[in-house]
Specification:
The structure is a single chain. The protein is of the alpha/beta class. Helix content is 37%, strand content 20%. It contains eleven helices and eleven strands. The strands form two sheets. The chain has a seven-stranded parallel beta sheet, sandwiched between helices. Strands 1-4-2-3 form a four-stranded mixed beta sheet, with helices on both faces. Helix 6 runs parallel beside helix 7 and helix 6 runs parallel beside helix 11. It starts with 7 loop residues before the first helix and ends with a helix.
Length: 261
C-alpha cells in the first residue's frame, strides 16, 4: 500500500491533476469517482493506472471490473487519498486515463442532428455543466472553438458528472467547425444579445447547431455573420445575459420540446 505523497507515481498523479500542459503533452488525465470512471470505461476510454483506497472503496461488484481494465492497480491509504481527492465522496478510486483523439469524420449524428458549438469557453465548471446538459438532451456532439480551458481539467470532469466521456467533444477552430456543420446540412443558430428573434421562435426540428459564446465577450462577428438565425432569451432583470451553461440548457430543451411534439 502506498502511504507517502513522495512516491514517484503519486507525484506524477498530482501533477496530472494540476497541470494542463502536462495533460496535453502526455495525453493522460485523472478521473476521480466510481460513476465517472464507469462512464469513461463504457465510453471506450482506457485506464493506464488505477488507485484504490480500501478504507473508502466499497463497491465490490465493480472492483474486479476496474482491476481487469489495467495492468497496474495500486492501493493507497485514506490519509493520502484525502490529500489527492478533490472531494471526499468519490468512493475511494482514482485512475490515470488515456485521452481519446476523436476525429470529426468518425462522429455519427442522429437525424435530425443537434450539436452544441462553444466559442472561447473560459471556465471548466461551465464546460462541464454544458456537457452534462448535452448528454441529458441527446446532443450528438459538442464543438469547442478556440478553447481557453482544458477538456480534461478535473473541474470539467467533476461538473460534467462524467458526461465529458459520453458526448463526442471536439476542439477546433471556428472556421473548421463551420465547414463541418455546413458540410452536413446543419443550420447554425447563434445566441446573441443583439438578436431580435426570441429563442422559441426558431424551428429546431431541422438539423441544428446551437452556437454560444463566452460570458465576457459573447459571440465573435464570425458566428454572428455566418449564422442562419440569431436568437435571444428574454431577460426581465438588470442584466442582459445568463450564465452560458444555463442558456445552453434552455436552448437544448426547447429543441427537445419541439422535436418531441
Amino acid at each position: 500500500m502506498i502511504t507517502s505523497s513522495n512516491n514517484p507515481k503519486i507525484k506524477q498523479l498530482r501533477l496530472l491533476m494540476e497541470k494542463s500542459r502536462l495533460r496535453r503533452e502526455t495525453g493522460l488525465f485523472v478521473v476521480e469517482g466510481v460513476r465517472e470512471l464507469e462512464i469513461a470505461l463504457k465510453s471506450g476510454f482506457a485506464i493506464k493506472e488505477l488507485y484504490l483506497c480500501p478504507d473508502i472503496f466499497r463497491d465490490k461488484e465493480k472492483e474486479p471490473w476496474f482491476r481487469e481494465k489495467t495492468r497496474m492497480a495500486e492501493e493507497i491509504d485514506s490519509v493520502l487519498y484525502g490529500k489527492l481527492a478533490y472531494r471526499g465522496t468519490t468512493e475511494g478510486v482514482l485512475a490515470v486515463m488515456y485521452a481519446k483523439d476523436i476525429k470529426p469524420a468518425n462522429v455519427r449524428l442522429q437525424d435530425p442532428a443537434l450539436v452544441i458549438v462553444l466559442e472561447s469557453v473560459e471556465k471548466p465548471g461551465n464546460l462541464g455543466a454544458i456537457l452534462r446538459t448535452a448528454d441529458a438532451s441527446g446532443t450528438g456532439a459538442v464543438l469547442i472553438c478556440d478553447p481557453l480551458t482544458d477538456l480534461y481539467n478535473p473541474n470539467t470532469i467533476r461538473a460534467s458528472l462524467g458526461c465529458v466521456f459520453s458526448v463526442p467533444t471536439l476542439p477546433s477552430s471556428s472556421e473548421e467547425a463551420y465547414q463541418w456543420l455546413t458540410g452536413r446540412g446543419i443550420q447554425v443558430v447563434a445566441a446573441t444579445c443583439q438578436a431580435t428573434a426570441w429563442y422559441n421562435e426558431c424551428d429546431y426540428t431541422k438539423p441544428t447547431a446551437l452556437v454560444l459564446g463566452s460570458e465576457s465577450n459573447g459571440l465573435s462577428p464570425f458566428w454572428r455573420e455566418k449564422a442562419n438565425h440569431q436568437i435571444k432569451i428574454p431577460m426581465k432583470g438588470i442584466i442582459d445575459s445568463l450564465n452560458v451553461s444555463s442558456a445552453t440548457a434552455i436552448l437544448c430543451f426547447e429543441a427537445l420540446r419541439q422535436r418531441n411534439q
